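Troubleshooting entry. Yesterday's outputs looked truncated, so today I'm pasting the complete records for two proteins to confirm everything comes through intact. If either block looks cut off, that's the bug. Protein one:
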Amino acid sequence: MSIARWLLSGVLLALAAQVGADDSPRYFKGGAGTDMAAFVTENCVACHAVKPVGDGPRHSAATRAESGPPLYYVGDKYREEWLREWLQAPERIRPAGYYPSANVRASPEGDAIDETSLVSHPILDAELAEEVAGYLMTLTPYADRLAQEEYEPASVPLRMARLDFRRFKGCVACHQDVKGEGGVSGPELYSAWSRLQPQFIVSFVRSPGQWNPDTMMPVLEMNDAAIHRLANYLKTIAEE
């Protein structure tokens, strides 16, 4: 291990324990010669699963407040351009964190997000973000699963598609399709089309548990056409 990589690894490991403790920006620069596989394994495990662990939930309730999404199938899930840009300017995708129950508190006005308990992601400089994103996009253990999806993206009438999303499917109970409108227990979906691969959206909606045993996403009994309509809605709102 090079001295530069050792120092950077130590800094990020320390960050994993401290991030979210205050509002100070966390910014890290890349360095030549870094082994990305080792870097991700060593520095991301505090908040992310970097490999599958059995078939059941991977995290105990005690650690869920500091957890993030699994990384071992990033290449099957995200768009590389979005991932590279997000690592340089991370914004919270899940308003109440990855495990909302750990970050939501009862108040006289109803449930409220405890912002002090939320964990912020470190900011990477352009060089490191490109290297990390490039490596993560090679992690495609479920490429065959995506290849089975026969989905051709299309636009849909916005008014009816929004009615389907909000009232008929009830997705708005957990997700926001417009910023500030909808639930906070799931990831916001108004930017989903720009960050997620289309086939992943369809496959995940069809069978969320096969992608992530920890997910709170229910299995919706829908045929292909209904699933495709939801995916097309995400495409349509992204293009507004």
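Protein two, checking that the full record survives here as well:
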Amino acid sequence: MHKAANHDSEGHDHGLARDLARLQAQQLQQRRRAIGFLAGAGGLMLIGCGGGAGEDNTATTSTSDTGTTTGTSTTTSSCSVIPEETAGPYPGDGSNSVNGGIANALTLSGIVRSDIRTSIASASGSAAGVLLTLTLKLVNTNGGCTDLAGYAIYLWHCDAEGRYSMYSSGITAENYLRGVQQTGSDGTVSFTTIVPGCYAGRMPHVHFEVFRSVNSASAYSNKLKTSQIAFPTEVCSDVYNSVAAYSASIRNLAAISFASDNVFSDGVTTQLASMTGSVATGYIANLTVGIAA
């Protein structure tokens, strides 16, 4: 059982607000550059299709008073709502306390980021392990599987030794392997992280929560969905048997299966990420996440 400890949130009250302001400023600057380019080109307003979109696809966006945009790009693929799952005992989203202190990584300055391998704010540790680029595509199951832009996804998982930052003995002062990303116009977010370890009693997994916007991703009470991502057993086995940091995961993985896992035993069809790559070069994992928006 992991040992819990106090989480120091002093000085982090406005961390998410700072991140959001910085993100909005960057987006404004990019729009101004684009306008300047078009003006400098003599008013040429020829805009082409991007991203290899098929000819059956259309793209429009609508903006709410929260500044969140929802993409309506059509798609021909089918999608299902991803199951609601437990956030577990180590979410760090403000929903539980650790030795009397509320654990909320969502208020940390710098939590909106793509590379989650290092700690932020006053912490400076890094999580070692095999490189993993994890991309999630958020789609609306109530709208023909259309892309959901402008939403936010908070993602967290254990390190190579099966420990959770902020909670586990030895790394209570760290907050790595936690981060928030805003979905782009294509509904995707991408995190640079490590392949998670396998601790006793659970298959390897990653937790995530979906929020309506980055601005609302400051506490668990605003979340729309909580779920978990599973990974191919053979890939995890290759990683664990190749890298010393994952040595304990070899025994733990051998003692568990999807059928006996208390979260994935009812099936992982909508939660199993596809993976390509190798231990030497790192892995790329992809998963489409359907929610009823």
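Both blocks look complete. Sanity check on protein two: Residues 1-76 have pLDDT under 50 and may be disordered.
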